[in-house]
Write a sequence for this structure.
């Protein structure tokens, strides 16, 4: 999937929040891309935009989303609906509210499958459901249970199963384990990894947890205040971060395997999306900010074979690279 | 220092054989016809001691009973049985008036900073509340104290924060307000329930540092309730790992992280995602999830999911025994010395 | 208190609705208050003008079968209704609000019992109960207000109760307890302010409903003494005139009743709609 210059706004009353600003990003086939950011970074909005789920008061105001050669923004709502599930599927954060409490689990699958293929018989849909549940480690006998009879972790498994039921090639998971306990989280992450390998999926993993990203992602994109701060392969992001925000973020995260790690803090707080500061959104909190940062918005510059970051400090890097 | 091992000096907080069972509301018919009454065994025979100045962590997943235990030690929830002694006084033997006066000594920092502040009350008023009810500070002096507190927790300029409402503040700022409110009456004991769970990642360190700073300055004893092992490791000097209402392992933080004895603790430590991509390894993850406290497993409550389970585990409840000095574990793999 | 006003300002859904409602309500209220000054003639004067005259320059709204000027009657006609409505709403709030607060906060069997009682009253059709009360106790502003209030109190109670039940589980109430606040203080400072905006919505609906109930009672003759000017009474008279084609009496009074009820309902609707997004 190729995202070019995507911008999303939310307009409520007299204020406009620019949730996503001019984001360009590439998702490669077969990879797990971790999209990291804190609240207000725009990562969830981006995920919704890719699924075509932005509704008023949200509006996509610019940009293109090209998936498998098709420009998603030009698709009508019917085509988009067909796309969802069969090509791209989404897993949301809260399994409690994502399932219909008065529908059996099996019926969730049947409804979902039949919505995309009117000719699918109930038996066929049910068979698919049972196969999927087997993949998830849920006994087929439970296909007739209701959501409240499942635990939180199992419900999230069901969500993963629903996402996979129609064989999509891309899964967007928005904070899939945030509402879950640590051990169940480990189970779900393992499940995602296994299924990804088994079905050759591509995965966009949206999270604020750097630990998850370190475990799961091939590449990482860091977002801040609606813009992409940095994109790089996972090891590079952790061992050689280029953007001051990435560096600062990594310093604030405790690591239970590191003894006496000193946690730094980032002074201040994320900027308002309705009244952002001029120039680079991170400059008020950046230890390296200089004059230009306050005036201009930095463009993404290439910082390595497969990485880029949006920071004026890095312009020197290109010079160094090109002089080699 | 811990459970039963007879100590001469009494600890600041002593929790003995604490139990909290919540009866389950049944329909009229069920009530008439069933003989057994069911209850959710949220806290089932928990014993631990906290010394003055400790930052003591109650660590566990949801359903472990840690929050209920915390609330009981804060005087907010009456236990079904067992005792909570604070500074030698049995908390629940006090009559209402005295209990309220005792509240001066302990304060609670809740998990969600947004819902722990009255949306219709200004920040300034919210922080003055404890001063109003639990201290002798006259009304005229209250504002001054509140402004000082705001500065102390890093909310500057205090004047402008005083008259704002909670929804004007960010999550991290709100949590600072909650902390300011909690320390306003100079308590001796602070119970913090997931203080950073709902705060942004980059702000968590600030809040944790603030709590530790307040602890040093006021010689606070803190009971920290969390599911996040990294937070527990950073903040606590001692921790108790809870599962389904019981303590599985307890001791100094260093000891437990360096040498986790209980299979559950080991599983927890393994499961935590590490922010280091070079550390990817195959994890041994227990199957299933934490069962309902309505019908806890027999014997050791962890036995159905334990990779090292054997016969004795489903039959006998293991006692919390001291394995190494100050390191306690409740597991049949470690029979008492 | 500022938070009660805030839905009134700012753009967004529901505001036009609410403003229209406020406009109508204000118009009617001001008209009723100013009636002695703006009414061209005495509305009770029988034989003042020709009988059954259609709207004309001299009598813009026509006259009724007793020769009374309808314009004057229309201007005066809202007073009684508004007075009853205001009294009813005040009684409801004075009774329903505290009972709901205290009962829900304390919970337990007392609360369950009170709720049961309230639900039983709630099941009663308001007009029937009003008729019973008026028939037994006679007609007066107080009696009519009471009749309406009695039936409406359960609604206030329910709304307050459901809100209180939700709010009392909130951490900030626990926090209030842990900072030593006592029951009454918690009710007044922590629970009441968070409940009050929903009361406004119920209050305005109550107001509109009471106007209609009063009109209904007047129409069947159980309202005011028939000599006083009142839209409901005019409906009663107007009905008698329909066979002869004199539409104006029933029309204008009916229109005013409709407007009055509509105005307050719109305020209620608009306010409710505005409140929800703000709560997010």
């Amino acid at each position: 999937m190729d995202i070019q210059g995507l911008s999303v706004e939310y307009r409520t009353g007299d204020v406009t929040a620019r949730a996503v600003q001019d984001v360009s990003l590439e998702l490669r086939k077969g990879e797990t891309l971790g999209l990291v950011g804190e609240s207000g970074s725009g990562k969830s909005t981006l995920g919704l935009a890719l699924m075509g789920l932005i509704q008023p008061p949200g509006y996509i105001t610019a940009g293109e989303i090209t998936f498998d050669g098709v420009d998603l923004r030009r698709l009508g709502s019917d085509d988009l609906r067909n796309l969802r599930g069969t090509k791209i599927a989404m897993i949301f954060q809260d399994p409690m509210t994502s399932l219909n409490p008065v529908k059996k689990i099996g019926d969730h699958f049947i409804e979902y499958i039949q919505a995309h293929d009117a000719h699918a018989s109930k038996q066929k849909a049910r068979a698919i459901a049972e196969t999927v549940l087997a993949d998830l480690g849920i006994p087929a006998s439970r296909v007739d249970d209701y959501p409240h009879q499942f635990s939180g972790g199992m419900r999230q498994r069901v969500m993963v199963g629903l996402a996979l039921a129609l064989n999509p090639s891309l899964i967007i998971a928005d904070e899939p384990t945030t509402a879950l306990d640590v051990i169940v989280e480990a189970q779900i992450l393992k499940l995602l990894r296994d299924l990804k390998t088994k079905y050759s999926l591509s995965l966009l993993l949206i999270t604020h947890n750097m630990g998850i990203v370190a475990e799961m992602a091939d590449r990482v994109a860091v977002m801040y205040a609606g813009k992409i701060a940095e994109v790089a392969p996972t090891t590079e992001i952790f061992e050689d971060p280029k953007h001051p925000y990435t560096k600062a973020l990594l310093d604030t995260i405790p690591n239970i395997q590191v003894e006496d790690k000193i946690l730094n803090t980032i002074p201040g707080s994320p900027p308002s999306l309705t009244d952002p500061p001029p120039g680079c959104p991170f400059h008020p909190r950046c230890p390296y900010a200089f004059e230009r940062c306050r005036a201009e918005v930095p463009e993404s510059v290439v910082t390595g074979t497969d990485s880029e970051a949006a920071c004026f400090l890095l312009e020197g890097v290109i010079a160094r690279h090109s002089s080699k | 220092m811990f459970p039963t091992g007879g100590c001469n000096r009494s600890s600041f907080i002593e929790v003995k054989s604490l139990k909290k069972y919540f009866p389950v509301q049944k329909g009229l018919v069920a009530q008439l016809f069933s003989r057994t009454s069911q209850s959710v065994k949220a806290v089932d025979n928990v014993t631990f001691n906290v010394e003055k100045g400790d930052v003591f962590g109650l660590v566990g997943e949801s359903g472990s009973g840690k929050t209920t235990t915390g609330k009981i030690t804060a005087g907010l929830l009456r236990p079904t049985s067992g005792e909570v002694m604070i500074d030698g006084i049995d908390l629940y033997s006090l009559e209402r008036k005295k209990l309220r006066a005792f509240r001066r000594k302990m304060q609670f920092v809740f998990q969600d900073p947004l819902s722990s502040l009255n949306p219709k009350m200004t920040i300034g008023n919210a922080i003055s509340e404890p001063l109003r009810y639990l201290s002798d500070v006259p009304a005229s002096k209250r504002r001054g104290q509140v402004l000082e507190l705001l500065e102390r927790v890093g909310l500057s300029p205090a004047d402008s924060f005083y008259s704002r409402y909670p929804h004007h503040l960010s999550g991290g700022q709100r949590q600072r307000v909650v902390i300011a409110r909690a320390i306003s009456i100079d308590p001796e004991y602070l119970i913090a329930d997931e203080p950073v769970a709902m705060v942004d990642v980059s702000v968590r360190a600030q809040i944790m540092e603030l709590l530790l700073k307040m602890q040093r300055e006021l010689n606070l004893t803190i009971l920290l309730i969390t599911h996040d092992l990294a937070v527990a490791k950073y903040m606590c000097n001692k921790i108790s790992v809870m599962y389904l209402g019981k303590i599985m392992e307890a001791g100094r933080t260093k000891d437990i992280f360096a040498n986790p004895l209980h299979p559950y603790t080991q599983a927890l430590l393994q499961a935590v995602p590490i922010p280091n991509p070079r550390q990817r390894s195959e994890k041994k993850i227990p199957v299933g999830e934490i069962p309902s406290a309505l019908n806890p497993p027999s014997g050791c409550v962890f036995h159905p999911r334990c990779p090292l389970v054997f016969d004795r585990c489903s039959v006998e409840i293991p006692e919390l025994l001291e394995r190494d000095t100050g390191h306690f574990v409740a597991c049949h793999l470690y029979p008492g010395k | 208190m500022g938070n009660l006003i805030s839905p009134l300002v700012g753009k967004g859904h529901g505001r036009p609705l609410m403003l229209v409602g406020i406009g109508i309500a204000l118009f009617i209220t001001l008209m009723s208050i100013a009636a002695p000054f703006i009414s061209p003639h005495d509305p009770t004067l029988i034989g003042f003008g020709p009988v059954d005259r259609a709207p004309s320059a001299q009598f813009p709204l026509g006259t009724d079968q007793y020769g009374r000027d309808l314009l004057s009657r229309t201007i005066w006609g809202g007073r009684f209704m508004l007075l009853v409505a205001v009294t009813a709403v005040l009684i409801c709030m004075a009774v329903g609000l505290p009972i709901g607060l205290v009962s829900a906060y304390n919970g337990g069997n007392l609360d369950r019992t009170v709720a049961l009682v309230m639900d039983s009253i709630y099941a009663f059709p308001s007009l029937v109960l009003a008729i019973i009360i008026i028939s037994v106790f006679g007609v007066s502003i107080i009696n009519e207000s009471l009749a309406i209030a009695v039936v409406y109190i359960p609604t206030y109670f329910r709304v307050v109760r459901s809100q209180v039940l939700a709010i009392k589980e909130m951490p900030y109430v626990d926090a209030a307890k842990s900072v030593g606040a006592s029951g009454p203080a918690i009710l007044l400072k922590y629970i009441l302010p968070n409940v009050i905006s929903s009361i406004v919505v119920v209050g305005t609906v109550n107001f509109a409903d009471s106007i209609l109930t009063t009109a209904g009672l007047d129409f069947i003759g159980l309202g005011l003494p028939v000599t006083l000017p009142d839209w409901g009474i005019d409906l009663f008279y107007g009905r008698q005139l329909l066979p002869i084609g004199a539409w104006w009496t029933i029309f204008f009074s009916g229109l005013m009743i409709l407007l009055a009820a509509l105005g307050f309902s719109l305020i209620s609707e608009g306010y409710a709609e505005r409140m929800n997004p703000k709560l997010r």
Notes: The domain at 13-258 of chain B is CATH 3.40.50.300 (Rossmann fold). Chain B touches chain A at residues 61-62, 170-173, 200-206, 208-209, 227, 229-231, 233-234, 257, 267-280, 283, 285-287, 289-290 (CB under 8 Å). Chain B has a mean pLDDT of 87.
